[in-house]
Amino acid sequence: MSNKNQTLGEFIIENQASFKYTSGELSRLINSIRLAAKVVNHEVNKAGLVDIIGAAGDTNVQGEDQQKLDVYANDKFIQTLINRNIVCGIASEEEDDFIAINSQDENHQNKYVVLIDPLDGSSNIDVNVSVGTIFSVYRRVTPVGTPVQIEDFLQKGNQQVAAGYVIYGTSTMLVYTTGHGVNGFTLNPAIGSYYLSHPNMQFPEDGKIYSVNEGNYIHFPQGVKDYIKYCQEEEGDRPYTSRYIGSLVSDFHRNMIKGGIYMYPKSSKNSNGKLRLLYECNPMAFLAEQANGKACDGFTRILDIEPTELHQRVPFFCGSKNMVEKAEEFMKKAQ
Ligand code: P6P
């Protein structure tokens, strides 16, 4: 149950009982993400002042080292999660290997691992386009109290206990699920509180927006080319509108509100596509399915894919159910 304008804190307390398996740890985990997002939001929003505060790698007017924003975001989320002593391991797009936490202390009882893309689309910051943080949460599968292992991270997406994103756009929003639907919270930066602005978010079953980098068209598989031509032909409610921001979180968020499909297919340039399974596709697929949408690699449900390595890439089709199913139809027909 949720009512509009409830704060994120009130929402978490009210829905605590529905977080199965947790004694408040998952709530504290979401709270730590909400705090880190506020800190990163502040830094992202002043990135435009780079001439005053110094570009990445320089020192700013206070003589402080100016970090690249994705490195900054990575450090902030990792430190916030470690300081609150909630998780036993973290994997990040910015870290080659996973980070084991408290591995020397067999008394720690932390049972969650977090996988994160700290600042997806960060190349857009220099041109003032929205960017986002994406996170995915699992319960560990190795014994509590022992050092976390790679198998704690290489779990299928259907094992996630929570997933979400922060979108640093015209307003900053935290959108997440714990398996009981998707809710969106908008930050009021004046007082630092998030308010439930988008309760129970749902993908429209159908849509008229397709998001893909058409510059790669000649490199796409035939099924993708056929689907793009289908979107463009004059028939019924088509041609659709092409909208591609170059920021997954932004395209996903718009499509969830208005209806649409986002595609990052494999191509002759990227044999498995570009997006990472564990900390981009799985969390977005969990959100999509919780919001009555769908997510696949063109043939297989994303959440059923067996991961083999931390930074593996997969082709990604995600959004309104009927649109994803139509794209799958073209992929299978062209096979
Ligand atoms: P391209 C950003 O780098 C990202 O991971 C997604 O956020 C975005 O949708 C995609 O890559 C853009 O990639 O190759 O179209 O520039």
Keywords:
5-stranded mixed sheet; binds 6-O-phosphono-alpha-D-fructofuranose; alpha+beta; globular; Fructose-1,6-Bisphosphatase, Chain A, domain 1; 8 helices
* Low-confidence segments: none
Give me the CATH architecture of the largest domain, please: 2-Layer Sandwich
* Element pattern in H and E: HHHHEEEEEEEEEHEHEHEEH
How far is it from the N-terminal to the C-terminal residue, by CA? 45 Å
Structural notes for this entry:
This protein is of the alpha+beta class and 335 residues long. Helix 2 runs antiparallel to helix 4 and helix 5 packs across helix 8. The protein has helices at residues 8-14, 25-45, 50-53, 69-83, 222-232, 248-258, 277-290, 321-334, and strands at residues 87-92, 99-100, 112-120, 131-139, 162-168, 172-177, 182-188, 193-198, 209-211, 241-242, 261-264, 293-296, 316-320. 45% of the residues are buried. The radius of gyration is 20 Å and the shape is globular. The protein is built from 8 helices and 13 strands. The strands form 2 sheets. The chain has an 8-stranded mixed beta sheet, sandwiched between helices. The chain has a 5-stranded mixed beta sheet with strand order 10-9-11-13-12, sandwiched between helices. The protein has 2 domains: 8-198, 2-Layer Sandwich (Fructose-1,6-Bisphosphatase, Chain A, domain 1), CATH 3.30.540.10; 209-334, D-Maltodextrin-Binding Protein, domain 2, CATH 3.40.190. The mean pLDDT is 90. The termini are far apart. The structure holds 6-O-phosphono-alpha-D-fructofuranose (P6P). 6-O-phosphono-alpha-D-fructofuranose is lined by residues 120-121, 213, 246-248, 274-275.
